């Protein structure tokens, strides 16, 4: 059976050690599901009762949403503070006797550092008792470590499509989770607002509003308890908890430490050179405003051409193993048949 060229299953690796990871996955900058990597006793131990008892009543700031699909455009969710043990209970149940919005509200925790404005999250500091049960896979150099974040979601919770600037190993400890990813090369089809895609309903998008979205190639996987998902920096991801789920993600620097914004605590601020380039672009666009529309159009087009020839990679997108042949796909598309010339951003 032919696989739909715009839908790709994220490759699954079952016997990955550090060498295989570095050679076949990390270097290639492709997402991959790693099954069978030891994550420690958390896999058996982290029941709701155990999490409540060991995690204790330390306060956590959580997202509370009346519907499971969180919407950053209309900000349909609230931030509320709860003791960790109360939060875990609420996230695990489907109907609440105590609630903020409604009996059926959904919860999501993305844990923060002790001083949330200054330091990145580290499970070992905020939840030392639970962190003992989780072993961080040693696939990266220790100095690449950036943060270690608890991710706990109600059944059905969907987090909007976004990218982070760090490499990520997302460990699913309990519950199944669907993850849909898009390549950074498809950014022009995703209707970005900063680091997020405005296309919230990725399963039945409003194509009158977002006609380009169909051109984005969808990579998909379902994480089972014990799975690790490697999400390379800049790859877009959208998560949907198919059950109440507990995960831990570890962000790692891909570039040298100096390349990143020192004030970044979430792992999502653009690298300093990229942020500078984007600022300069804004200035350039302001300068174009001084021109009449037809001149602005002409010089705008020239700028696009310059960016395409100078900044776009001449390397074809790496084919993801066992999936539709991405190179062939590009070659069969007349607009993208010349190596190095990507289709114009329309
Ligand atoms: O697991 C989730 O719900 C979100 C994960 C995520 O966005 C991340 O690990 O960067
Ligand atoms: Fe993320």
TrEMBL record:
BP terms from Gene Ontology: wybutosine biosynthetic process
Which segments constitute the JmjC domain?
116-269
* Pathways involved: tRNA modification; wybutosine-tRNA(Phe) biosynthesis
Keywords recorded for this protein, A-Z: Dioxygenase, Iron, Metal-binding, Oxidoreductase, tRNA processing
Keyword Oxidoreductase assigned? yes
- Reactions that this protein is recorded to catalyse: 7-[(3S)-3-amino-3-carboxypropyl]wyosine(37) in tRNA(Phe) + 2-oxoglutarate + O2 = 7-(2-hydroxy-3-amino-3-carboxypropyl)wyosine(37) in tRNA(Phe) + succinate + CO2
An example molecular function term from Gene Ontology annotations: tRNA(Phe) (7-(3-amino-3-carboxypropyl)wyosine37-C2)-hydroxylase activity
Q: Would you identify the family this protein belongs to, as annotated?
A: Belongs to the TYW5 family.
PANTHER family from the xrefs?
Answer: HYPOXIA-INDUCIBLE FACTOR 1 ALPHA INHIBITOR-RELATED, TRNA WYBUTOSINE-SYNTHESIZING PROTEIN 5
Biological role: tRNA hydroxylase that acts as a component of the wybutosine biosynthesis pathway. Wybutosine is a hyper modified guanosine with a tricyclic base found at the 3'-position adjacent to the anticodon of eukaryotic phenylalanine tRNA. Catalyzes the hydroxylation of 7-(a-amino-a-carboxypropyl)wyosine (yW-72) into undermodified hydroxywybutosine (OHyW*). OHyW* being further transformed into hydroxywybutosine (OHyW) by LCMT2/TYW4. OHyW is a derivative of wybutosine found in higher eukaryotes.
Note the subunit structure: Homodimer.
From the Swiss-Prot or TrEMBL record, give the protein name: tRNA wybutosine-synthesizing protein 5
